[in-house]
Amino acid sequence: MVVSFLATLTLEIARAEAPAPIEEISLPSVPEYKQYALERVVEEWSLEEWEAFNKIVNKESSWDNTAQNPTSTAFGTFQFLNSTWQSVGCVKTVDQNKQIDCGIKYIKQRYGTPTKALKFHSLNNYY
């Protein structure tokens, strides 16, 4: 049941990211790290939180696990400062899945949900 549910969600992500109507093209493949993120978001919160989570990541790094802010220590998918990595008990890494776990931990600890984190981000241009 969970596998079928996640397969359906993966298909929905692919459709949402498709540049043309689904009937006209083949579905793009969804990167494994994004599938992992979707599974983790559903485990921690619910499917309803996926859109907010995805928007935060797109605003911060466009899912680039090696994104580096040239004027600060902000690094990775969630653009954590060195102090942020430490605050959630994580070590700075390029491992996308570990960054996702740390991002979830940070959002949960600081805001409770991705929706609340996105609302804060929209008002302040950081989260």
Report what the structure shows:
- Helix content is 57%, strand content 0%.
- It has 127 residues and is an all-alpha fold.
- It starts with a helix and ends with a helix.
- The model has no long low-confidence stretch (mean pLDDT 89).
Helix and strand topology:
Elements: H1 2-17, H2 32-44, H3 50-60, H4 82-87, H5 96-110, H6 114-124
Features:
127 residues; mainly alpha
Rg is 15 Å
Average pLDDT, to the nearest integer? 89
Euclidean distance between termini CA atoms: 35 Å
- Total number of beta strands: 0
Helix content: 55-70%
Fraction of residues in β-strands: under 5%
Number of helices: 6
The gross shape turns out to be globular
Characterize the largest beta sheet: strand count, sense, and whether it forms a barrel: none
Structural class: mainly alpha
List low-confidence stretches.
Answer: none
Elements, N to C (H/E):
HHHHHH
